[in-house]
Specification:
Blueprint (H helix, E strand, L loop, with lengths): L1 E10 L2 E7 L7 H12 L21 E7 L6 E9 L6 E2 L5 H4 L2 H7 L10 E8 L4 E10 L2 E2 L17 E6 L17 E4 L5 E9 L1 E7 L11 H5 L2 H17 L6 H7 L5 E6 L4 E2 L5 E2 L6 E7 L2 E2 L5 H10 L6 H5 L9 E6 L2 E12 L2 E11 L1 E11 L2
Helix pairs in contact: 5-6
Amino acid sequence: MIGIPCTVMRGGTSRGLYFLEDDLPKDVALRRKIISKAFGSPDPTGMQINGMGGTFANMNKLAIISRREGEPNTVNYEFGQIDIYSWTIDQKANCGNISSGVGAFAIEKGLIDLIEEPITKVRVFNTNTQKYILEHVPVKDGKVNYEGDFNIAGVNASGSKIRLDFLDPGGATTGRLLPTGNVTDIIKTDNYGEFEVSIVDAANPFVFIRAEDVGMDGTEQVSDIMAKPGELKKMLEIRAATAVYMGDAKNIADAYENCKATPKFCYLASPKPYASATEGYINEGDIDILARMLSMGKPGPIMALTGAICLGVSLKIKGTIPQLLLRPEANASNDLRIGHPSGVLPVTVDVRYENGKYQAISGTVYRTARMLMNGTIYVML
C-alpha cells in the first residue's frame, strides 16, 4: 500500500481528486493505475466502495496541477474523466466545473506568487485542450475565501463567486470551431436512421440536436430520461455515430469503447416553463433555451460548464440548431440563460464574424468551489 498527497475539492457541480504532478509517479502506466485505484475503479458493481469515486460521472473526475514555468501566476492543469467500470481515463477534453477549483487549489498549494485581495487572477493552461482559462479567485487575508452568498443551481450551499474566462475556446479538441465546416450535418446511425445535428467545438466538442427528434420535449428531469430507455439508447448511438463522422472512432462499437467522453451530446428546445430540481418553477421568460445533456452515457442533472460555453457560442452562430431554437429576443445579446434540469445557468460569450468566418473570443461563467479534504490517499497496487 502506498500513500499519495491528495485534495478532494468540489468545483462547481462536480467533485474530484486534485493532485500536484510532482506527487505522482513519472511512469505513465503506473500513474494511471494508481489514479484508477484511488477512485475505486474498475468496479463491475459500479459502487466504487474501495475508493473515493462517487458512482456518477460528475464525482469521478481528476485534476493534476503543476507550476507553469516562465509564466507568472500560471499553472498547468490536466483533466481526466475516470470510467467506473474499466481502467479507462478519458483525457481528450476538459471539465469546466473541475476547472473552477484549480485556481483555489493552486493558491492553497503555494503555486501562485502574486496574491492580491479581494481577487487574485490565476491563469490556468489546460493541457487537454491547449487553451487558457483566466480564473478570478476571491482572497481574504492572503488565503482563498470560500465563503459568500453566491448560489449555483445543483449545489445546496452558497459560496464566493469565482469568475472563469475561457479564452479563445474555439477548436478546443478538434482545432476548429465548426469541426466539419458546416453549421448542420446529417448523421447516419445503424439502427435509427438519419438525424440533423450541429457539431460545435468550443471548450469541448458537442453534438446538438432538437429534442423532438429524439422523442423529448426539453423539460425532462434525469428520471424522465431514464424512464425512456429506448430514446436514451437512440441518443447514445447518435453520439457514437457523430464520433465516427468526426473521425474520432473507426465505427460505432469503437466509439462506445474508446470515445466515451467526447463528443458530448445535448438535445435542445425553445423556451417553455418547467419545474427544476433545485430552483423551483422556471418561467418561459427566465430562459433563452432549454438544454439536456448526457455525460459518460448517462443524463446529467446539470449543464456542464464547458457545455454552457459551447452552447453559448453556438447560439451566436447563424444557422446552427441552437441558434434556430434560441428565444428570438435573445439574438442580439451576449448574455444568455440556459435552462437545465437543476435550474438556470447564465453564460456570457464574445463571438465575432469576420472575413466569412466565426471566431469565439471568450466565454464567461461563474461558479463556486470549496476544499472538502486535504490529506493522503492510500492505494493498494
